[in-house]
Amino acid sequence: MKKPMRARRGKTQDQGIGKSEWMTTYSDLVTLLLCFFVLLFSFSVIDARKFQTIIRSFQGSLGILDGGRTIDDDQYINQALQSDKLLREQREAESMEWLYIQLEEYIKENDLEATVVLGMEERGLLIRFTDQVLFDSGKAEIKKQGIEIMKNIGEILKQNQRFIRVEGHTDNVPMHSPQFPSNWELSTTRAVNVVKFFVENAGIEPVRLSAAGYSEYHPIAPNDTAKNRQMNRRVDVVILRTNFELNEPNYNEVAL
Asked: What is the pTM of this model?
């Protein structure tokens, strides 16, 4: 006796349902894999060429991006680069803020507010020392009272990996001595001596440091009173932001 037709139809329907469910599961798996790799990519350093290679591999092997382009490669890369830039800027801001807090605590605990000044500038975190805390008039050797201050501040700066620029400044009173024929030599030597101190006494990597002397030509106050001239006689230590680090020489990239 032949089986009822109803049973055959039921079997065909069961087979169809099973196939459909299998395809749905496969599609979900592919989608999850894609999301997983995109997530991993978002946490890595962005490389446009590598990302384009990844996109092409998905297009060729998974078939989910063939035909009509559901994702614009260039647009996605730009968005990923922008996200990476924002993440780096956020981390940099947090690092600068942490440094500021540590330095501020040290300055307040040691009553140095009158001689050591902190500030945030476009180029980075500024630590400004008046010459009275570091140097005697017309000299470039760090004074005894400044040694302990510089050592402690150097220990704080050592914990960060940013570039540091040390800048020497003077007032406009002419300098004439066998050692320092002009304010150029005085300002530069002071900056260099601070750099050497950070290397030799605080253990900061020399590659992170640079020195510059600006003589009398970058005043922060008019040189018309003794108080203002004292303000202009200073050493600025600048912890540079990434954009300004690009101006620092990278000798590993010099082509001979």
From this structure: 0.66
Phi, psi of 125 (to 5 degrees): -90, 125
What domains does the chain contain, in order, with CATH numbers? Answer: 5-86 (no CATH), 110-253 (3.30.1330.60)
Q: Which residue is listed with tokens 């008046």? A: 130
Q: 186: number of CA atoms within 13 Å, CB side?
A: 24
| Environment class of 248 (CB within 10 Å of its CB; exposed 0-12, middle 13-18, buried 19+) | middle
- At residue 182's C-alpha, the angle toward residues 166 and 201, to 5°, is 30
Residue 81 main-chain phi, psi, to 5 deg: -65, -40
pLDDT in tens, 163-201: 999 999 999 999 999 999 999 999 999 999 999 999 999
Of 225, 67, 239, which Cα lies nearest the Cα of 156?
239
